[in-house]
Amino acid sequence: MRFPEVPTLSDGTVTLRAHHIGDAEGVYEQCQDPLSQEWTTVPIPYSRDDAKRFVREIMPGGWREDVEWGFAVEAPDDDGTPRFAGTVSLRNEREGRAEVAFGAHPWARGRGVMARALELLLAWGFEERGLQTVVWWANRGNWASRRLAWQLGFSLDGTVRQWLPQRGELLDAWVGVLLASDERVPRHPWYAVPRIVGANVVLRGHRPDDLPRIQEACLDERTRHWFADLPDPYTLEEARTYVDGRTEHRASGSGIGWVVADPATDVLLANISVFDVKHGRSGEIGYWAHPAARGRGVTTEACGLVVRHAFLPEDVGGLGLQRLTVGAAETNTASRHVIETNGFVQTGRERAGSRLRDGSVVDTIRYDLLASEHTR
After folding, report:
1. One fold for both 9-179 and 196-373?
2. Where does the record place the N-acetyltransferase domain (predicted)?
3. I need a labelling partner for 269 at 20 to 30 A (CA). Which of 95, 151, 185, 375 fits?
């Protein structure tokens, strides 16, 4: 039986080609990698015989049966020698539809190889195979896969609960779509977390070792008084969910969150965020302090640093916003001190806008600040 000929695609640096037996060792190495095992359905354990069967039978079989168009990715290593870098494929769903799939060998990660490979693959699928719609699926939490999809212009259309099977479980899945008519560029920003150094605090990204401090802050009675909707009890898992939410804000272009840390110890003192960001227009600030950091001016200084970053133009690393808003319960004098010290102007009163932990309801005082008014 004559197998379909697998085309060779190249952008001059990265090449897509048919798999051959020389790729088996690279496939085997990739499937021993913990990240590959965590986020894909590769069998565990995975043997060299499995790798040989993948390159000799599974990938050619996809082409023969017209169910999956899979390519080996080849790219130069540090010495310029061409090397197996992973696999990309389009799974044929018929009627102009396909699912994109990809996996990188560990050595190729962080080099831009897979982005280039997928650009080649998608262009071929749309132009040569007449595809109209390509769908992307990933296990919820696979930020590396999501970032690649974002970079290539895929939408993010939501989370489908218990959808993707993996080793006897059904996992929550992210899903997105790219149409032939779509531009293959990001649809919105994916914000980085810049390190910002102040006189007495440092703003940095969240880390796993921050979770106990987040839990301590959110178990504190004063914190809970002002944040009535905090889960009860507040566990380490709740803290992890909170940190995942900060990553979600950055990935969706809707905000950035920082840990406010002690410059000497790097220990979390507080948290501050810009959320509900409307790109190039506006955002809202929110913050809380660990009980051990109160009364030290930590959130006041952090707020000033974040305001400055938010109003800085994008071409010099800021958010390029024109307006910031913030609100506080009328009776929360500490929070209102932070806001007013940083130059925010009171704009109104939201009647019965804040529900407190004891069940009482008080007005929320609303403030804003314009970039044109910011002088610090």
Report:
1. yes
2. 14-180, 201-368
3. 375
Residue 1 exposed, middle or buried by CB count within 10 Å (0-12, 13-18, 19+): exposed
**Domain range summary for the chain, segments of one domain joined by +:** 9-179, 196-373
Is the pLDDT confidence value at 3 over 70?
Answer: no
Which helix (H) or strand (E) segment is 258 a member of? strand 256-261
**What 3-state class would DSSP assign to 228?**
coil
Question: Of 283, 272, 276, 373, which Cα lies nearest the Cα of 325?
Answer: 283
Tell me if the domain spanning 196-373 has CATH number 2.40.50.140.
Answer: no
The tokens for 142 are 């696979």
Positive/negative CA dihedral, 112, 116, 117, 122: positive
- Nearest in space to 339 (alpha carbons), one of 348, 326, 323: 326
- Looking at domain 9-179, which CATH architecture does it have? 3-Layer(aba) Sandwich (3.40)
pLDDT mean over 281-296: 96
User: What gap in Å lies between CA 131 and CA 91, rounded to an integer?
Assistant: 11
Task: Give me the sign of the Cα torsion angle 245, 251, 257, 258.
Answer: positive
Q: 116: closest CA among 51, 174, 71?
A: 71
DSSP state of 183: -
Per-residue burial over 325-345, b = 16 or more CB atoms within 10 Å of its CB, e = otherwise: ebbbbeebeebbebbeebbbe
- pLDDT tens for each residue of 6-27: 999 999 999 999 999 999 999 9
pTM: 0.91
DSSP 346-360: EEEEEEEEEE-TTS-
Burial class (CB in 10 A: 0-12, 13-18, 19+), 310: buried
More confident residue, 5 or 236: 236
The whole-number average pLDDT for the span 177-205 is: 97
pLDDT band at 376 (very low <50, low <70, confident <90, very high): low
For the record, the structure tokens of 9 come out as 């695609």
H/E element, 50: helix 48-53
